[in-house]
Amino acid sequence: MFGTREAGNADLFLHSLSGDSDPVPYLQAPWDELEFALHPGGALAAHTSDKTDNNEIWLRDFPNPEGEWRVSFGGGRWPRWSPDGTTLYFWRMVPGSAVDTLKSARIDIEPSVVVHEPQVVLTMALAEGWDLHPDGDRFVAAVPTRAASATGASAVPEWRYLVVLNWFEELKERMGN
């Protein structure tokens, strides 16, 4: 899967890893589609689209994008599936806000797709990008910081990496599970 802006907007294409064929369009529209995440079972794909004039998370059937289900309301970026495919994580980013929100939505696939209301997992400032570890127990996120210079003046933003270990266990404990 890859994206291109050849038509002036972001579209998603499938490409065989064998290299035996040309790329095939997966989603093409007058709006942007990007940030693809394939369900572990392979039957659904999550992606970001701005077709509502705001970046939101959507689900589509895979490999043929027939069905369509909206996951986020009020913004969504960077979808990631839990390893067991029961939960979709994404970030709600509010332009100009110092705090972003990681959300999770339970997704039922059988007998039909049902998207449950997204829940807040945590809030923190996030720079561009994050990822969920394959075991689903931790994630890595780019966090913006501002370091003070030797003169005490505010310096340019620096990048640092914050690794949060065992955050699912802490979340379960705080929720009484």
Tell me about this structure.
This protein has 177 residues and is mainly β. It is built from one helix and 15 strands; from the N terminus they run E-E-E-E-E-E-E-E-E-E-E-E-E-E-E-H. Strands 8, 9, 10, 11 and 12 form a five-stranded antiparallel sheet that branches. A hairpin with a 5-residue loop joins strand 8 and strand 9 (87-92). The mean pLDDT is 81.
| N-to-C CA distance | 37 Å
Strand content: over 45%
Rounded to an integer, what's the Rg over CA atoms?
18 Å
Structural class: mainly beta
The SSE order reads EEEEEEEEEEEEEEEH
With helices defined by DSSP (H or I, 4 residues minimum), what is the helix count?
1
What is the topology?
Elements: E1 2-4, E2 11-14, E3 24-27, E4 33-38, E5 44-49, E6 56-61, E7 68-70, E8 77-81, E9 87-92, E10 100-108, E11 114-115, E12 119-124, E13 130-132, E14 139-148, E15 154-164, H1 167-174
Antiparallel strand pairs: 1-2, 2-3, 4-5, 5-6, 6-7, 8-9, 9-10, 10-11, 10-12, 13-14, 14-15
Quick structural overview:
This protein is mainly β. The chain has one helix at 167-174, and strands at 2-4, 11-14, 24-27, 33-38, 44-49, 56-61, 68-70, 77-81, 87-92, 100-108, 114-115, 119-124, 130-132, 139-148, 154-164. The model has no long low-confidence stretch (mean pLDDT 81).
List keywords for this structure.
177 residues, 47% strand, globular, mainly beta, 5% helix, single chain, 5-stranded antiparallel sheet, 1 helix
